[in-house]
Amino acid sequence: MLIHSVYFWLKPELTDAQRADFRRGLESLAGVKSLASVHIGTPAPIPPRPVVDASYSFALTCVFPDVAAHNAYQTDPLHLAFLERFRTNWTKVQIYDAV
Fold first, then answer.
1. 17 lies in which domain range?
2. Which pLDDT tens digit goes with each residue over 28-46?
3. 44 part of a folded domain
4. Best label site of 41, 43, 46, 71, fewest CB within 10 Å?
């Protein structure tokens, strides 16, 4: 199994409609066949703690059965279309992959 965690910091000037469109774009990634599961979220409304970074706008967590499935995701047309359409919406993206 491979866990692919992606954190997005969206541009502050995006409208609510643009943010909603971005979320729909993230949701479209669930159609990638090599994914075992996907979760999309925003920072949890928990009390602040020094070890928690809640500065991001959206989190995408993808679970793949293996590294080969992750690699297939990287070139999947749905993933490439998401990148092409939305890459100008963020100021930063951070990825953590774990096996």
1. 10-39+66-92
2. 999 999 999 999 999 999 9
3. no
4. 46
